[in-house]
Amino acid sequence: MTQSTAKQPHYASLSNSLYPYILVGFVACLLIANIATTKLISFGPIVTDGGFFLYPLTYILDDIISEVYGWKAARRAIIMGFVIMLIASINFFLVNISPPAPGWNNQSAYEAILGFVPRIIFASLCGYLVGEFLNTFVIVKLKQRTMEKKLGLRLVASTVVSEFADTLVFCTVAFYGVITGAEFANYVFFGYIYKTLLEICLLPVTYPLIGWIKRREPSYHLETIA
Question: If you average pLDDT over residues 50-75, what whole number do you get?
Answer without folding.
Answer: 90
